[in-house]
Structure formats: C-alpha cells, structure tokens
Design goal:
15 helices; ABC transporter involved in vitamin B12 uptake, BtuC; mainly alpha
Length: about 350
C-alpha cells in the first residue's frame, strides 16, 4: 500500500506545471468590457483632440461649420483638413496594431512587428523603386506595389530566420528582420539620393506621417484595409490553435498551412496598405498587442479587435502629441511612435522568460 502514494508523488513530480500564461488566456468578461469601454472613450477623446488641436486651435462652432460644408475662414478650413487626417490615423493605427498581433500569432514570436521584421521597409523600397524607375499612375497602384514589397520582405525574413537548428526562433527572426531592414534602407537611399526630382518628397514620406491625408487617399486605401481586417478576424480562431503548436493544431483538425498563410496574407495586406498611405511607421504593431494581452488575454478572437481600437487611439494620440510639442511646426508621427516603441522593444527583449507566445 505504501507504493501507491509514492507512485502518485512521482507522477506529480514528472508532470510539468502549466505555463504561467495559461491562467490568463481569457480575462473575465467584466475586465474585458471595462477595458473596451475605456479604450473607446480614449479613442473618442484623441479623435476630438485631433480635430481641434493643431498649429492653431479651433472651436466646436468651426467643427460644425466644416461638417456642414463651409470651408471659408481659417477655422472651418483647418477642420476640413484635419478630419481626413484623423480618419487616416485611426485606420492606419488599427491596421498596424492588428498586423502586429496577427504576425506575432503566426510566427509565435513576441518580437514580431512589421517594423522590427523589416516588412514595411520592403513595402517602402518597392514603392520608391517604382516611383523612380517605372512611375506610379495612381494611388491604387502604389498600394498594390507596397503590398507586393511587404509580402516579398516577409517571406524573405521568415525564410532566413528559419534556417539552421531550432527553426524560426524569436531571436533569429529579430536578427534577420534587423539585418533585412538595414539592407533595405540602404537600397532606398541608393535609389533616392541620385534622383533630385523625387528626393525631398520621398524622404518626407519615409519618415512616416499622416499630415497629407485626404479623403481621396482614404477612399482608395479603405477597401484594402477592410479586406485585411476581415481576413485577420476570420483567422483569429485558427491562430489560437497554432499557439498550441503545429502538431497539436493539426491533430485538432486545423489546416496549419492554410491558417498560417491566410493570417499572414491579412497581416501583409494591412501593413502594405498602411505603408503606402503614410510611409513606414514602426513599433505600433509591437507595443499595442502586448499591452492588450494584459487586458483581454491571448485569445485572438478578442485580441485582434481590441488591438484595432488601442492601435487607432495610440497613433491618433501620437499625431496630436507631435503637433503640440513643436508648435507651430510638427513632428511626424513616425518619430513619436519610435520614441514610444523603442524602450518597449528593449524591455521585451530583456525579459528572459519570453521565448514564444
């Protein structure tokens, strides 16, 4: 009889403890609902600030006049310019955040981000190259070119990061992305510097910003962003299965290759379309998903839409901050997000326990 307790004790000792993140896969509904309400309130507040704040503040009467179609006078004219800028910031911030969340789920890599992995630099190189040597006839063509460049860069980085023993580890992917991003930046400089006719505009675009947004650009990019959002939302359940590992996901009936390919496609479409409109903006897709996991957990069915709301609020707020700190000039939003995201990236790298999602 004494052997039974010993056997039970040995079994308990041999069974590994559950991962620390298993208990927070899905936060309580009350916590998630409260987080969503607060995030939506913050988003509404920064959108209002984006319309009201600039080189010169305007009043609510100017906003109502602009919404009514009046553009005479500084106030209504400024509001008419800031409304499309605000909407583009909201959509691009949501797109980059969702792209980062899905990319982290596809690669099971907490460091995955369109900027860190060099994907938006691939889109930028494709756009700059076509402008310099081919010429882009329309903004829609520019979006397609950017998506193609982002896809090529994503495949290249993942292939390089998968070489050797251990496959695509977070460290190898981060190193491959950093090296690829540096190389692509050099290629962009080689293309832009000899061309004085496109140099100034290209350099301004490469910083990343939403200052020149218009309703025309918004209408052209909106179908691509909506398609990317739909694909990512439909892939959310499959990403939960991939988090268990490819073998277990396949055992549960998940089509691993199809799920990973579809999710990656949605992520690349969002990143490429956002880059085509605003230039390369880094770290939004890295910071936002990690912050959202603290509130909603790691279930992608809640993480993806929640990341969209928080990403929209972050980029819009960063754009407002860039207008305030350097009045009457502006600091492009790409610089602000880099200042916010770089310390978060270092913090994630220094966390020894973070190896995969």
């Amino acid at each position: 009889m004494s052997r039974v307790p010993d056997a039970v004790t040995a079994l308990k000792t041999a069974t590994p403890p559950p991962p620390s993140g298993a208990a927070v896969v899905r936060r309580p509904r009350r916590v998630r609902a409260l987080g969503l309400v607060i995030s939506l309130a913050v988003l509404g507040a920064v959108m209002a600030a984006s319309v009201l704040v600039g080189s010169r503040e305007v009043e609510w009467g100017d906003v109502l006049s602009a919404l009514g179609g009046q553009t005479e006078g500084f106030g209504p004219a400024a509001v008419a310019t800031r409304i499309p800028r605000t909407l583009v910031a909201v959509l691009v911030g949501a797109a980059l955040a969702v792209s980062g969340a899905v990319m982290q789920g596809v690669t099971r890599n907490p460091l995955a981000d369109p900027g860190v992995l060099g994907i938006n630099m691939g889109a930028s190189l494709a756009v700059v190259t076509f402008i310099a040597f081919v010429g882009l006839s329309s903004a829609t063509t520019q979006i397609w070119v950017a998506i193609g460049g982002a896809a090529v860069a994503a495949v290249f980085v993942y292939t390089v990061g998968s070489l050797g023993r251990g496959g695509a580890t977070p460290l190898k992917l981060a190193l491959a992305g950093a090296a690829t991003s540096a190389a692509l930046a050099s290629f962009i400089s080689a293309v832009v510097l000899p061309r004085a006719d496109i140099g100034e505009a290209a350099r301004a675009w490469l910083i990343g910003g939403v200052g020149g947004a218009t309703f025309t650009a918004l209408n052209q990019v909106l179908p691509f962003l909506l398609a990317g959002f739909v694909i990512c939302l439909l892939s959310a359940k499959g990403l939960n299965s991939l988090a268990l590992g490819d073998e277990l996901a396949a055992g549960l009936g998940e089509r691993v290759a199809l799920t990973r390919g579809a999710a990656a496609l949605g992520s690349v479409v969002l990143c490429g379309a956002a880059t085509a409109v605003c230039g390369p903006i880094a770290f939004v897709g890295l910071v936002v998903p990690h912050a959202c996991r603290l509130i909603v957990g790691v279930d992608h069915r809640g993480l993806v839409p929640f990341s969209a709301v928080v990403g929209a609020a972050l980029l819009t707020g960063a754009d407002v901050l860039g207008r305030i700190v350097a009045r009457p000039s502006e600091i492009d939003v790409g610089i602000i997000t880099a200042l916010i995201g770089a310390p978060v990236f270092i913090w994630i790298v220094r966390r020894q326990k973070v190896r995969a999602l």
